[in-house]
Design goal:
alpha/beta
Length: 230
Amino acid sequence: MDTAFVAQWFNEKDRFLAGEIERVLYSHGVRPVRGDHLDGEALEDGVKARIDACHCLIALATQRSQLAEGGWVTHPWVINEYGHAKTQGKQAIALVESGVTWQGMYAAHEYISLDRQHLSDALLKLSMTIGSWKEQAGQTWKLQIFPDEIAQKLALEGTNWTCTYRTFEQGRYSDWSLPITPVPEPGGVFLYVTGLNDRKLIEVKVATTRATWQSPATPQSMPVILRELR
């Protein structure tokens, strides 16, 4: 998880707050993306494209307009951008300022209460959320396939071969993945697998109409060694 869209109302009052949120993201190795400079793109389409390209979204729902009966509403763009991210199945969390009525289709979902007088409380909760998301997302690992003879055939004859993988963690196997594409590079043939962490072992299976090869459950720091199943 490398990028996060920060949905916000661009005003002077929120500049410092947005900066603090960006500092939290950078501390986790996540690059913040904003929607204020769209390089001539139509606003709605441009913002949607940026949200779609990011791994998650942080919504900054601050006080914008005061209601006649009391309380506040936030900027509708923030609500819509948050809703778009949730509709796309992305991780999203809102920081909702004190007094703001949080609205929209996903208003009942978890959010972080924001009090400007106790800002560190909200930032700590946001940091914990980002850390949890990164752990769930895992990392992308580059795995080399052996023996090289099988690996090269897999790379060259991909239309007749299928390659899948599953993980093993805490005594349980995951389901087998959809077919993935091996990448021939100088030095060998490699798989790029996302969603892994240091605790997971990985098994790779290669199959043709005539034979099937499978690796044992292997730590991600080691090469994947295929053995023919009989």
